[in-house]
Amino acid sequence: MRTSVLSSALLLAGGAVAGCNGKSDACVNPDASIVAHTGEPVGEEVVHNDITLYITKPDEADPRTQARAGSAVLFLTDVFGLALTENKLLADSFARAGYLTVVPDLFNGEPAPGDINVPGFNTTAFLEAHEPPVTDPIIATAAAYLRTELNATRIGAPGYCFGGRYAFRALSAGTEGGAFAVGFAAHPSLLTAEEIGAVEGPVAVAAADQDQLFNAAARAEAEEVLLGVASPYQVNLYAGTQHGFGVRVDLEDAQQKYAKEEAFLQAVKWFDRFLVAA
Ligand SMILES: *[C@@H]1O[C@H](CO)[C@@H](O)[C@H](O)[C@H]1NC(C)=O
Ligand SMILES: *[C@@H]1O[C@H](CO)[C@@H](O)[C@H](O)[C@H]1NC(C)=O
């Protein structure tokens, strides 16, 4: 009798803290219904060390949150940054999945315009102004905030387009503020073979099949390099998608909407597998 009560208690405790490694009952797997495509963001912005951080917190009472306690998501945006509602909504979706989520403003209040083809916007100059020596320290500041102010012990970085490169960089101890636990990159841009080869943690990729930046040749090269790294990796290719599909799609296009949701769930499952303590 006593033993069975004790083991039930242990099972319950185990369910609450054991994370999501094969324990789908304890982890409460999210599904596509938690992805917000439209609507109002629910998080808030704070300024820390001159960097704006969008913070979106999970519901403490939700078993999903309890299963993922201590783990956090540092969301690395595309060039449209915090000005793009879809980025905040996607961060909110990670929070609904149970992850405390922080999105740093990587562009000091001046992201790229929603349409980068507008006259006067110089993409080359913009990218030159946001090279790793500028961007890595911003991400390091956000990570430090997560660790010291929000008590996160393990950080996973999902990155999109521009941010995808930094999801890789953040997995290298050689990067300032690096050595995050887990990375996920959707349609990364400007990513180098050296950066892929330097990862020291599990990394997953969501790739579009119609992407001029992360195209078939770039994917093949990435896979070649990943074969040589010691960490687990996963590369998913989504049909009927274009660069940016992880963040913004034509919601009237059922295949694009499906792919965006699947790429989000790919990230959540990847973090559940490798980020949440076993
Ligand atoms: C865009 O910026 C690059 C790099 O700063 C510069 O070389 C180029 O002349 C600029 N182009 C225009 C049209 O201003
Ligand atoms: C972080 O931990 C400290 C010390 O246990 C605690 O006082 C503080 O309230 C925690 N902060 C958050 C945001 O949980």
Automatic annotation (TrEMBL):
Return one GO MF term. hydrolase activity
Give the matching SUPFAM superfamilies. Answer: alpha/beta-Hydrolases
Keywords in UniProt for this one? Hydrolase, Signal
Query: Which named protein is this?
Result: Dienelactone hydrolase family-domain-containing protein
Give the signal peptide, or none: 1-18
Which InterPro entries does the entry link to?
A: AB_hydrolase_fold (IPR029058), Dienelactn_hydro (IPR002925)
- Tell me where on the tree of life, at the top rank, the source sits: Eukaryota
Name any one Pfam family assigned in the record.
DLH
Q: Which residues form the Dienelactone hydrolase domain?
A: 69-274
